[in-house]
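Thread: Newbie trying to understand structure tokens

Hi all, I'm a second-year student working on a class project, and my supervisor (Dr. K.) asked me to get a predicted structure for one chain before our next meeting. I've only ever worked with sequences, so writing a 3D structure as a token string is new to me. If someone could post the tokens and maybe explain what I'm looking at, I'd be very grateful. Here's the chain:
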Amino acid sequence: MEILSREFIYIWYYFTVQLEQIFGWWVLGMVIGSAVSVFAKDSIHRAFRALNGKRLGVWGIAAASALGIASPLCMYGTIPIAASISKSGMRDSWLAAFMMSSILLNPQLIVYSAALGGTVLAVRIVSCFFCGITAGLLLHFLYRDKPFFNFSGFDKPKGKDTDPNLFLRYLKNLWRNVKATGLYFLIGVLLSALFQRYVPAETMTALFGGNEALGVLMAATIGVPLYACGGGTIPLLQQWLWDGMSVGSAASFMLTGPATKITNLGALKIVLGIRRFVLYIAFVMLFSLFAGLSVNLFL
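---
Reply by user tm_fold:
Sure, no problem. This is what the structure looks like when written as tokens:
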């Protein structure tokens, strides 16, 4: 009993220390994320629609990827938006860039990721941006004359931010944000405390440190089953980086995690079909490996 009490005290100590270090970033992320969702979402999507018909060539892919990062919607919200824009003749390559980067990152997650330090934040933004661009370029060259997506059955999404009072609309969005991310955030902090207590730093360095391809591959692989919520993984990543995980391994984890999140995969399977869904998984894994190894090479 005494041993259990002592262990609880240790874990509680690590938990509170981690919570104190990262709680402010979680709150700031929700505050800013809800503000973007309520006040800027429509403008971002109108900007994406406005790309249609412009002669931007492959530069339109880069613009679409940037707007996908700015969009606050999850994949289940992004697909209906993409479906409605597709009906107006938007190129699949531009849609792919927008959807890919939207899966990987959003304004709220950018703020969360600032807790990992400026270098990791920059790596996350740049790698997600270029992942969207790469997806768009692949469709531009390989599926130029044939459709890639099947959006049949997807209607324009019904917005939840409908309260005529802007302040109440914002508060309702913020509360939904708290409910959606709060539990995962606390679980992430708890897992981080458990790792800090029971997993030696040398183990993390051996598994995910250095420039070895194996460490990047392992980080990319564990991102598939472990990723449930962006906010919940930030405490874990923070602890792993402190324990010796390389920035490249972290980059791979941050790419494969959201890209293979189970809810995202369910939506993507519908619009891609089996064969292209498999191609999507292969693309995510290969790009994450390339990105992780590239980051380790230059940092």
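A couple of things are worth pointing out once you decode it. The chain has a mean pLDDT of 85. DSSP finds twelve helices and no strands in the chain. Feel free to ask follow-ups in this thread.
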